[in-house]
Amino acid sequence: MNTAGRLRMLEAEGLLHPRAEAVTAELFTHGEFFLAADKVQVKYEMLRAHLLDGVSVTAAAAAHGYSRAGFYLVTAAFEQAGMSGLLDDKRGRRGPVKLTAEIVEFLQAAPPDRSGAELAAQVADRFGVVLHRRTVERARRR
Fold first, then answer.
1. Does residue 45 contact residue 64 with C-beta atoms inside 8 Å?
2. CB atoms within 10 A of CB 122
């Protein structure tokens, strides 16, 4: 794959290094395999430079376009999740906030002839949680 195609793919996946121009590590100055715009590759090589080559944290972070604090965040994510820790977390909520397992169980056990509005009122009375009727209807379809 050529560099332009790789850059398009990285951008589509949200994996472009935000400060690719700040990457000064020698690996990224030659050839096409090491690409300063590839955020995951840069993070990996930053950790490798420190852990295997003995480069100081400050120097490794600076050469790869990260701060010392950023280096430690990348290290912690890598230690916790391995290679997948080098991917950024998805932004935003991780699903419904108000729907607990208990509420979903209640909704799915309700008779099918009950409307979303009726069940939302029952959830408010029973659990003290206000839900929109559409939220109730979606929860029942799961």
1. yes
2. 16
Q: How many helices (H) and strands (E) does the chain have?
A: 7, 0
Question: Which whole number is the average pLDDT over 3-14?
Answer: 91
Q: What amino acid is encoded at 19 in this protein?
A: R
What is the C-alpha to C-alpha distance for residues 42 and 78, in angstroms, rounded to an integer?
A: 13
| Virtual torsion, Cα 19, 45, 80, 67, nearest 10 deg | -40
Token pair recorded at residue 97? 């906030």
Q: What is the pLDDT of residues 42-90, one digit of tens each?
A: 999 999 999 999 999 999 999 999 999 999 999 999 999 999 999 987 7
Distance CA 106, CA 21 (A): 54
CA distance 71 to 58: 8
How many angstroms separate the CA atoms of 13 and 11, rounded?
5
The owner of tokens 């090491």 is 34
Q: Mind listing the pLDDT tens digit for each residue in 92-123? A: 776 667 888 999 999 999 999 999 999 999 99
**CA–CA separation, 65 and 51 (whole Å):** 17
Structure tokens at 36: 């300063």
